[in-house]
Amino acid sequence: MNEPKLPAQYDVQRATLHALTSSEHLWGIASFLRGPDFELPDSGAVLLKRHTTARVRAISGAAWCNGVIQSTALTVNELKERERLLGLCPVHFRRHWRAAIRAIQKLYGYDLSIEQPLPPRGTHK
């Protein structure tokens, strides 16, 4: 019995999923793209999403995910607010955030924790 041939898009989706799950850094980004799915006081989850998930989407070029993109670096005050909000989050979310930060550093040479490009390898600050 012949199985029906799936459209080519399924082959691409399967290959993409395999690549993402087999690469620690890509998985660190992909697993974070959805953003927070919990409530914080005073619409904090919406702000946190803009300060975390939307930044990961912007740096990684994940505009295809149809989510909010925050293309400009956060200000000092926004960084402080992000840290305050992260302190209110479940540990699970913070772990995904740290994995996304490491992935962005490794793949894109950018440190989201301080909103700065990393110095070129082999140079000292």
Summarize the structure.
By secondary structure, the protein is mainly alpha-helical. It is 54% helix and 3% strand.
Strand order of the largest sheet: 1-2
- Class from helix and strand fractions: mainly alpha
Count of distinct strands:
2
Order of helices and strands: HHHHHHEE
Uncertain ranges: none
Helix content: 40-55%
Shape label: globular
Per DSSP, the total helix count is: 6
Keywords:
125 residues; mainly alpha; 6 helices; 2 strands; 3% strand
Describe the structure.
The protein contains six helices and two strands, in the order ααααααββ. With 125 residues, it is mostly helical. The protein starts with 7 loop residues before the first helix and ends in an 8-residue tail after the last strand. The mean pLDDT is 78. The chain has a domain of 83 residues. A two-stranded antiparallel ribbon has the order 1-2. α1 crosses α2. The longest helix has 18 residues. Helices cover 54% and strands 3% of the residues.
